[in-house]
Design goal:
The chain contains five helices and eight strands; from the N terminus they run H-E-E-E-H-E-E-H-H-H-E-E-E. By secondary structure, the chain is an alpha+beta fold. Helix 4 packs across helix 5 (168-181).
Length: 234
């Protein structure tokens, strides 16, 4: 490392090849002839490949990014994709106290980014958010482990747990209170502040890694009732 770079904690990390050069992507190509006219069908195809691959762990993991207005401050977090339907991509979370709730309340635009390293693929989604109905949210909520359903009630997501009050003990006390409230109940109602959020896409990009960073990129843009497909420069 040169003197100019000696103060940098990280400089040119190179994956597995132990040189300053990034790993090469060689596992696939993407051409227009391979694409479905529908980005939802195309995503389902790629997601199925990722799900069935031994090299991709939890392909439903997705980076969900939001931005608050008027500041423009951006925040990101990893969540799980739980549904894909003819309208869009659905994630579930707390929409009462979380940072993403704060953002979406002021600005409905959000972005999703999937990275499937084992296939050297990524998918990006941009669109507006819309809440699912309580009935739709209840259907998924009922599938969750009981502890997770209790936790959704107990956690005021993203709010500070005061050190002087015991930090985690505050949360665990809330859990005990919710467990007592629903003791003996098999069915637990979904909290009104918790549920599904659908990202209705205006743009979906499919990215396949290629050698020399000359990746294959195709973007679907909403065009009336259909979709326009464009190849992008890497």
């Amino acid at each position: 490392m040169t003197a100019a770079n000696s103060s940098k904690l990280i400089f040119a990390p190179a994956g597995s090849n132990k040189t300053p050069q990034a790993d090469q992507y060689t596992k696939g190509i993407l051409s227009r002839s391979q694409l479905s006219p529908s980005p939802f069908t195309q995503f389902h195809t790629w997601f199925t490949h990722a799900r069935d691959s031994q090299s991709v762990h939890q392909p439903e993991t997705v980076c969900f990014s939001t931005a608050h207005l008027p500041s423009g401050s951006v925040s990101s977090r990893y969540v799980y994709l739980k549904e894909l339907d003819s309208k869009g991509f659905v994630v579930y979370s707390n929409w009462g106290s979380s940072r993403k709730a704060y953002d979406v309340e002021s600005n409905p635009w959000a972005a999703l980014a999937f990275w499937w390293a084992g296939l050297e693929r990524q998918v990006r989604v941009e669109g507006k958010c819309e809440r699912l109905s309580d009935e739709e949210s209840q259907a998924y909520y009922d599938l969750r482990a009981r502890g997770s359903r209790i936790g959704a009630w107990a956690s005021e997501q993203s709010k500070v747990l005061p050190e002087e009050e015991g930090e985690r003990e505050v949360l665990e006390q809330r859990v005990r209170e919710v467990e007592e409230r629903f003791a003996g109940a098999e069915e637990i109602p979904v909290p009104g502040f918790w549920g599904g959020m659908r990202v209705v896409p205006e743009m979906i990009e499919f990215w396949q890694g290629r050698e020399s960073r000359l990746h294959d990129r195709f973007r679907y843009l909403r065009d009336g009732d259909g979709w326009k497909i464009e190849r992008l420069s890497p």
